[in-house]
Design brief:
Four Helix Bundle (Hemerythrin (Met), subunit A); 6 helices; elongated; binds fe (ii) ion
């Protein structure tokens, strides 16, 4: 049965696929025997900015969190405040990775800075998703049990407005990122 968070949990699975692939890439780069696969990195950053941040975090910030707040959960402290702070941190790390990448491309920075940013992003997002899946979303499923279809409409609206219905396109992108990174490993 659909719950208040089942669509967001499904997004998390797609995001985790990319995070796991990034982690594999991180290990390969740390070992120093692989070149930076720029095209995959660019696709990964685009995925993180559009699917993860604008669309998925948009659904949480504009639909789920306000519904929790309306049901009595405070927004300036506790889990919502922590989640909002982590979304912001994620954005800041992504901006730093892009900056490091631009400098790396101009030869003015080493690959280490790019890898360090990727590492930081993976750790933040893995912990963030773990907390949502196992704590906040369980609370939301109970608090918003009667609001599931209303929330689902809200999530659909964000997908339409923010992603122009390109959600399933990005599911393919996630698959392709994972495949290409696995292919480098061989
Ligand atoms: Fe989140
Ligand atoms: Fe999330």
């Amino acid at each position: 049965m659909m719950s208040a968070t089942s669509e967001l949990r499904r997004d998390h699975e797609v995001i985790m696929k990319v995070l796991n692939a990034m982690d594999l890439l991180r290990v390969m780069l740390r070992q120093g025997n692989k070149d930076l696969p720029l095209e995959v990195i660019n696709d990964t950053i685009d995925f993180a900015k559009n699917f993860t941040d604008r669309c998925h975090h948009g659904k949480e910030e504009d639909v789920l969190f306000p519904a929790l707040n309306a049901a009595g959960m405070p927004k300036d402290e506790g889990p919502i405040a922590v989640m909002l702070r982590e979304h912001k941190q994620g954005r800041e790390i992504l901006a730093r990775i892009e900056d490091a990448l631009a400098r790396y491309n101009h030869g003015s920075s080493s690959i280490d800075e790019v890898i360090a940013g990727i590492e930081e992003y993976i750790i933040l997002m893995q912990h963030h998703i773990f907390k949502e899946n196992n704590i906040l979303f369980n609370i939301a499923d109970m608090m918003l049990r009667s609001k599931s279809s209303e929330l689902s409409k809200g999530y659909g609206r964000i997908e339409h407005e923010v992603m122009h219905d390109k959600h399933s396109h990005y599911e393919h992108v996630a698959e392709s990122i994972a495949e290409r990174i696995n292919a480098i490993k061989k």
